[in-house]
Amino acid sequence: MLNIKDEIQRHTEHKDDLRLVKQYERRQLKLGKRLAYLLRYGAEKEGCRVDEGWILLRDLMTVPLLSEYTENEVLGEIQTSYSYRKTPRYQWEKRPDGVYVRAAYGRRFERNPYHEQTQIRRLLDLTLEYICENVEQFDFENFPDEFLINEIIHRIKRNGKLTSKKLQSLLSETMEHLDLDGIYLTESGIKAIYKKCPNLKVLSLKSCGYVLNDHYLEQIIRKCPLIESLDLSYCRHLTDRTLNNLIKYYSKNLIQLILSGNHNYTGDAIIRLVSECEQLKQLDIWDNPNCTNDVLNILIALAKSRENDRTITIVHKNLQHPVVAPDNPWAVVNAKTR
């Protein structure tokens, strides 16, 4: 006979278990986000000593953001956290003075705004802060330090104050490197790129929003003819038309191309790209589902037919080859070796 009290008790215990699981998941998610911030951007700003990205774990644990976690919890997250590409997000190593950790990629540290062991602001930080708050008052035409320009762009973006007008005021024709990773571009912002930066060689448009489509990118491609490295990852409104334009205008100078995060490109278009862009040395199509084993084998054959000075590395989750994809140990399926 069904015991109502026992059933209610079991139901209550089950709900409690689920609640504890959800609490744990939320806690781990929060830890993951805080580690990503600290090990990629904020450790130095929070007062940690950073050497080529490496941070002493003992020092990292002094940051208030990690006060509710133990050292073992933090190290455990570092050792077991993997990206969607199944590669480790973090690295760690033991040294005589302790365990050191760092982000495996994506490091872009903000400097500690204060002089070491003081509360005195650095002059550079004060200057950049003032410029970011009053950027429209300055003329950056022919400004020689593009690293600082990119730093200013991302500082304003992190403060949520980057408008198309401010972006336009920062761009100039002397720029050869422009990193707009994660910056939402409007139509006027896109136009500013190709009108004010015709001499670009390295351009990142990663995750720049839905406005960036084939039409607007074609304008950039046509009017910035010197580009050698182009990051179009997560630009999900681009199609084969963009690849055809890259072939048409960049076949002689494109060296690096990142196309991950977009499933619109067909296998045939990617094959044409590799075939026609003779200088292409790195192609990232990590998660493209249209790259079947047949397509990957054709890409391998094309890559192997190149001269030694025109070798190419192709990154795809289903591709592992000692010559074409030597740095991809996480391949799910081995393409045939011809």
Blueprint of the fold:
Blueprint: H1 4-42, E1 55-56, H2 57-60, H3 71-80, E2 90-95, E3 98-103, H4 123-133, H5 146-158, H6 164-170, E4 177-179, H7 187-196, E5 202-204, H8 214-223, E6 229-231, H9 240-250, E7 256-258, H10 267-276, E8 282-284, H11 293-304, E9 313-315
Parallel strand pairs: 4-5, 5-6, 6-7, 7-8, 8-9
Antiparallel strand pairs: 1-3, 2-3
Helix pairs in contact: 4-5, 6-7, 7-8, 8-9, 9-10, 10-11
Describe the structure.
- The protein has 338 residues and is an alpha/beta fold.
- It has three domains: 56-107, no CATH class; 115-173, no CATH class; 176-338, Alpha-Beta Horseshoe (Leucine-rich repeat, LRR (right-handed beta-alpha superhelix)).
- It is 41% helix and 9% strand.
- It has eleven helices and nine strands.
- The chain has helices spanning 4-42, 57-60, 71-80, 123-133, 146-158, 164-170, 187-196, 214-223, 240-250, 267-276, 293-304, and strands at residues 55-56, 90-95, 98-103, 177-179, 202-204, 229-231, 256-258, 282-284, 313-315.
- The strands form two sheets. Strands 4-5-6-7-8-9 form a six-stranded parallel sheet.
- It is globular.
- Residues 333-338 have low confidence and may be disordered.
Q: Report the count of strand segments.
A: 9
Structural class: alpha/beta
Strand order of the largest sheet: 4-5-6-7-8-9
- Major beta sheet summary: 6 strands, parallel
CATH topology of the largest domain: Leucine-rich repeat, LRR (right-handed beta-alpha superhelix)
- The CATH homologous superfamily of the largest domain is termed Ribonuclease Inhibitor
Number of domains: 3
What would you report as the Rg, rounded to the nearest angstrom?
24 Å
Q: Span from first to last CA?
A: 69 Å
Order of helices and strands, N to C?
HEHHEEHHHEHEHEHEHEHE
The whole-number mean of residue pLDDT values reads 88
The CATH architecture of the largest domain can be named as Alpha-Beta Horseshoe
The percentage helix is 40-55%
Beta-strand percent range: 5-15%
- What's the level 1 CATH class of the largest domain? Alpha Beta
Helical stretch tally: 11
